[in-house]
Specification:
Elements: H1 2-11, H2 36-40, H3 46-107, H4 116-136, E1 139-142, E2 154-161, E3 171-176, E4 178-181, E5 184-187, E6 189-195
Parallel strand pairs: 2-6
Antiparallel strand pairs: 1-4, 3-6, 4-5
Helix pairs in contact: 3-4
């Protein structure tokens, strides 16, 4: 009985089964100091940022140059347009100077020494000269006597009856001729239109 009690007490003693560290290294194992996210984080690249800023500055300068060039083009075009208009007006005046000289001569004649027929012929000559010069620049006279009434070119100031059906809406009289300059209506012809009442 004594021997069985002694064996039971020896079996109750805990046994240390931990293997000793190799080469006498008893230091504890190292712990991980950083997470996976911290290990994969890449610091910003200063060179890439500098390149983007340089590209942006280049595009900004290019835009400013284009804006300046367009502004210069707009001013130059406006100046050329004004100069072109002034040259056209000068050409018109130059063509009318001879007719103005003729008109001035007839305006200052001595009525006692000039008969009415001579004055009328002189004024008619000035009119023809002015129309010839203006016609060379693109002026057309609208004188639609006995032509169909055209509301795009004529202005009816009155109507008069006509017994003939075929004369309906024909121009009977022209009170004032119209003018077209280079295809653009300047003034419609003011006319009297025939009207057939059946």
């Amino acid at each position: 009985m004594k021997n069985s009690k002694k064996k039971r007490h020896e079996s109750d003693v805990p046994v240390d089964t931990t293997e000793p560290a190799a080469d006498g290294d008893s230091s504890p194992p190292e712990e991980a100091h950083s997470s996976d996210g911290e290990q994969n984080q890449t610091p910003p690249v200063n060179g890439a940022v500098a390149t983007e800023e340089a590209d942006l500055q280049s595009e900004r300068e290019k835009y400013l140059r284009l804006a300046a060039e367009y502004d210069n083009f707009r001013k130059r075009t406006a100046k050329e347009r004004m100069e072109s208009g002034a040259r056209a007006q000068a050409e018109l005046v130059r063509r009318l100077t001879d007719a103005l000289d003729d008109l001035a001569r007839f305006a200052h004649v001595d009525p006692a020494a000039t008969d009415a027929i001579t004055l009328a012929q002189g004024v008619e000559m000035v009119e023809k000269k002015m129309l010839r010069e203006l016609g060379a620049l693109g002026l057309e006279v609208v004188n639609p006597l006995d032509q169909p009434f055209d509301p795009n070119m004529h202005e009816a100031v009155a109507t008069e009856p006509t017994p003939a059906k075929e004369d309906d809406h024909l121009v009977a009289r022209v009170y004032q001729p119209g003018y077209v300059f280079q295809g653009q209506l300047i003034r419609p012809a003011r006319v009297v239109v025939k009207q057939w009442n059946g």
